[in-house]
Design goal:
479 residues; alpha+beta; Arc Repressor Mutant, subunit A; 9-stranded mixed β-sheet; 15 helices; elongated
C-alpha cells in the first residue's frame, strides 16, 4: 500500500513592536531574566490589559499580504492551561473569532507551483521561558524567565494542503520572507521569534479521510523542520504497515538523534477551556484602518522576483537570491541604476559581495561598500581600466578599508595597460624572442597563444589588457 502525507503548519511569529501586547514592557531580546516585566504581564490581581495598536496593524498587514479576509470584529479569549511559564494561568489569545481568515500562499518546489490555503491568522501573547539548570548547583532545577511573557504574536494556521517535507520547508520560507519584507518580524528561528509546529499524518493514496495526526514541536531551523517531518512520515508508515496504530500526541524533535519522541497526548481545543476575556472589549477594525494598512504594503517577494526576471532579464535563480531580503533587492537595484548592467551587477553582488558578507555573518545593511562602490568597480572593468582579476583584489580591499576603488587602484599602480601602441611593442618583442613557438603556431598548434599571453603578462606585471593582447597577438602571429 502506498501512503501520502498530509501536513498542516501552525506558525508563530513575534511582532516587532517596542512594547508587549497588553502592557508597556520592552520586547527586547536577550536582557537579564525577569527584568522586562510589570504587574500586568505578571498577572497580578486587579490589573487591566490595554491592547497595543501597532500589533493590530502588523497583524492586519500580514493578513493582507497573504490574501486573508480581515474580520471587522474579532474577540480575545482566555486560553486556560497550567504551565510554570504562564503567570496568569491562562494565555490571552483568539479562538472562535480571529482577526483574519481564508487566505493563501503560493509556493514553488522543483519548478512546480502550488497554492497552500491559510485557515486563519489570530493574535495572542507569548508565554515565558523555562531555563533548565545544567551546572553542578543547578542540576535538577528549572528557572522561569518571564521577559517573553506578553510579547505579541500572530499565529498563522495553514490548511492541511502540504504533501511533503519539501513543500513544508518552501511554505515556511515563503512566510518568513513576507514577514521580513513587511518589517513586522525578524524571522529569527534560533531566538524563537519565528517558530512552527507541524501536524503530520499519513493516509492511503486516494483516500479522502485523514489519518491520525501527531504534532511536532521543537524545530528551530528549516533543516530540522524537514528532517523532523521526513522522520515522522516514515515512522507512521512503518507503524501502520507493522499492524500498529498512530495515536494523537505531541512529539518533540531530537535534532542530535534525528528522531521524534513522544511528549504528551495531544489536547483538543475544548481541553483548554477558551473563555471570552472579560477585561477586553471585542476588537473592531474599521474599513479605514484596513485601507490605511494596505497602502503601506511594499512590493512582496514573489512579485519582486517576477519583476526582476522580466525587467532585468536575469535568471530566475539570480532573482531568487537577490530578493531574499528587501535590503539586498534595493542594493541591487541601486547598482543597476548606476551601471545599466543587470547581469554584471548580479554577478558581483552574488559572488564577491555576498561571499565577504557571509564570511563575517554580516547583513547587507551593514555592508562597508555602498552600491556606488560596486558600480565603480563594474565601470572600471568594463572601461578596461582594470582587469577582472585586479578588480576582485581591489574589491576586497574596498570591503576591508572602506576606501574608494579609484584611490586603491592609484595607490597600488594597478591601472590596466590598454594602449595598443604600448602593448604592440611588447607583443613584438615577445614574439621575436620565441621563434620556436611561432613555428608551432603556424603549424596549427594554436594553443601556444597561451604561452605568449603568459609571457606578456609577466612583462607587464599582470597589467596588460587581455582583450587587447589577444587581438594584437593574433594579428602578429597570422601576419
Amino acid at each position: 500500500m502506498k501512503f501520502e502525507p498530509v501536513i498542516g503548519l501552525e506558525v508563530h511569529a513575534q511582532l516587532l513592536t517596542d512594547s508587549k501586547l497588553f502592557c508597556g514592557c520592552s520586547t527586547k531580546f536577550g536582557s537579564e531574566p525577569n527584568t522586562q516585566v510589570d504587574p500586568i504581564c505578571l498577572g497580578m490581581p486587579g490589573v487591566l490589559p490595554v491592547l497595543n495598536r501597532k500589533a493590530v496593524e502588523y497583524a492586519i498587514k500580514m493578513a493582507l499580504a497573504v490574501e486573508c479576509e480581515v474580520n471587522r470584529k474579532s474577540v480575545f479569549a482566555r486560553k486556560n492551561y497550567f504551565y510554570p511559564d504562564l503567570p496568569k494561568g491562562y494565555q490571552i489569545s483568539q479562538y472562535t473569532e480571529p482577526i483574519a481568515e481564508r487566505g493563501c500562499l503560493e509556493i514553488e518546489v522543483d519548478g512546480v507551483k502550488k497554492t497552500i490555503g491559510i485557515t486563519r491568522i489570530h493574535m495572542e501573547e507569548d508565554a515565558g521561558k523555562l531555563l533548565h539548570g545544567e551546572g553542578p548547583e543547578d542540576a535538577g532545577f528549572s528557572f522561569v524567565d518571564l521577559n517573553r511573557t506578553g510579547v505579541p504574536l500572530i499565529e498563522i494556521v495553514s490548511e492541511p494542503d502540504i504533501r511533503s517535507a519539501d513543500e513544508a520547508q518552501a511554505y515556511l520560507k515563503a512566510l518568513r520572507d513576507i514577514l521580513i519584507y513587511l518589517g513586522i518580524c525578524n524571522g529569527n528561528m534560533e531566538e524563537g521569534s519565528f517558530r512552527c509546529d507541524a501536524n503530520v499524518s499519513v493516509r492511503p493514496v486516494g483516500a479522502e479521510k485523514f489519518g491520525t495526526r501527531a504534532e511536532l514541536k521543537n524545530m528551530n531551523s528549516f533543516k530540522f523542520v524537514k528532517e523532523a517531518i521526513d522522520y515522522e512520515i516514515q515512522r507512521q508508515i512503518d507503524l501502520i504497515e507493522s499492524g500498529g496504530k498512530v495515536v494523537q500526541e505531541t512529539r518533540l524533535f531530537d535534532s542530535a538523534k534525528g528522531i521524534t519522541a513522544s511528549m504528551r497526548s495531544k489536547e483538543e481545543a475544548h481541553d483548554y477551556r477558551y473563555l471570552p476575556d472579560p477585561d477586553l472589549l471585542p476588537l473592531m477594525v474599521s474599513d479605514e484602518l484596513v485601507s490605511e494598512v494596505r497602502s503601506t504594503l511594499p512590493e512582496l517577494p514573489r512579485a519582486k522576483r517576477e519583476r526582476f526576471v522580466t525587467e532585468y532579464a536575469i535568471p530566475a535563480y539570480d532573482a531568487g537570491v537577490l530578493t531574499a531580503s528587501r535590503d539586498l533587492a534595493g542594493y541591487y537595484e541601486q547598482v543597476v541604476s548606476e551601471t545599466g548592467e543587470p547581469k554584471l551587477s548580479s554577478n558581483w553582488i552574488m559572488g564577491e559581495l555576498l561571499r565577504l558578507l557571509n564570511e563575517e555573518g554580516r547583513d547587507v545593511k551593514d555592508c562597508p561598500i555602498p552600491p556606488s562602490g560596486v558600480a565603480d568597480i563594474i565601470k572600471m572593468v568594463k572601461g578596461g581600466q582594470i582587469s577582472g582579476k585586479m578588480a576582485k583584489e581591489v574589491f576586497e580591499e574596498m570591503y576591508r578599508t572602506k576606501k574608494a576603488a579609484a584611490d586603491i587602484v592609484k595607490a597600488k599602480g594597478l591601472t590596466q595597460i590598454s594602449d595598443e601602441g604600448e602593448l604592440a611593442k611588447i607583443v613584438e618583442e615577445i614574439v621575436n624572442a620565441n621563434p620556436d613557438n611561432v613555428a608551432k603556431f603556424k603549424a596549427g598548434k594554436t594553443n601556444v597563444i597561451g604561452f605568449f599571453v603568459g609571457e606578456i603578462m609577466k612583462a607587464t606585471k599582470g597589467k596588460a589588457n587581455p582583450g587587447v593582447i589577444n587581438k594584437l597577438l593574433k594579428e602578429k602571429l597570422e601576419a
